[in-house]
Amino acid sequence: MAKYDRILLKLSGQALAGEGSFGIDPGKVQELAAEVAAVAQAGVQLGLVVGGGNFFRGAAAAAKTMDRVAADHMGMLATVINALALQDALERQGAPTRVMTAIEMRQVAEPYIRRRAIRHLDKGRIVIFAAGTSNPYFSTDTAAALRALEIKAQVVAKGTRVNGVYDKDPLASQDAVLYPQVSYGEVLSKALGVLDGTAVAMCRENRLPMIVFNLNVPGNIMRISMGEPVGTLIH
Asked: Taking the CB of residue 71, how many other CB atoms lie within 10 A of it?
């Protein structure tokens, strides 16, 4: 039996690119969709926030002299592309899905309305939240924390390329130590970096637990929903 009734799952745009560094890998998207659909079929209500880094990173572009606000808006539009790709893959799995965007584009998705999103979840639909918060200078991690609080999710689960939160970058240091559990304060004070600080602070203020886990391990999303110890719990 599932431990959580409602989960906010945060996926990076890079997760959809598979082994590539740009664009969408259809095979990888189908794999992810199959896992997410299986969790939904187990009775867990799922909200998804997906990044856009496989197409465009606003902060990186701004660092190369582009206006930050324009660059962030371009990054938000990239998340809509990813959301539509995920929606298509999920519906191929037979999972009813809605894309809701913080930037209105009614021809392709519903505008984000909190009460409507909750109604979709209550009806068993997977809701994909796109276009971040619609505001520049905020990451999709922060958008995930905000949407989780708005829909009253019980946990934010962030899928990454590593097994959880480490004391240093595990991709650069072989002696990096994994934290099974860590406090919000430690993540912020030690600048552990796996999550945006604003998102962590928001979850700390509202006592919303976060789980950081390896998205590349098949079955991890289901294990989290069942309450198995996976990755790092931030609380």
From this structure: 21
SS3 92: helix
The count of other CB atoms within 10 Å of the CB of residue 74 is 16
Does residue 1 lie in a domain region?
A: no
As beta bridge partners, residue 49 has: 10, 129
Domain count, the chain: 1
Q: Which strands form 110-111's sheet, in the order they lie side by side?
A: 110-111, 97-101, 126-130, 45-50, 6-11, 155-160, 210-214, 232-234, 181-182
For 129, phi then psi, to 5°, come to -95, 120
68-92 vs 26-41: helix crossing angle, rounded to 10:
70
Spatial distance between the Cα atoms of 232 and 234, rounded to a whole number of angstroms: 6
Question: Counting every residue, how long is the chain?
Answer: 235
**Domain CATH code at residue 42:** 3.40.1160.10
The reply to whether the predicted model has a pTM over 0.85 is yes
Q: Is 49 within 8 Å of 89 (Cβ atoms)?
A: no
Q: Are 75 and 67 in contact (CB under 8 A)?
A: no
pLDDT of the chain, 235 residues: tens digit per residue: 889 999 999 999 989 998 888 999 999 999 999 999 999 999 999 999 999 999 987 777 766 788 999 999 999 999 999 999 999 999 999 999 999 999 999 999 999 999 999 999 999 999 999 999 999 999 999 999 999 999 999 999 999 989 999 998 888 888 999 999 999 999 999 988 788 999 999 999 999 999 999 999 999 999 999 999 999 999 9
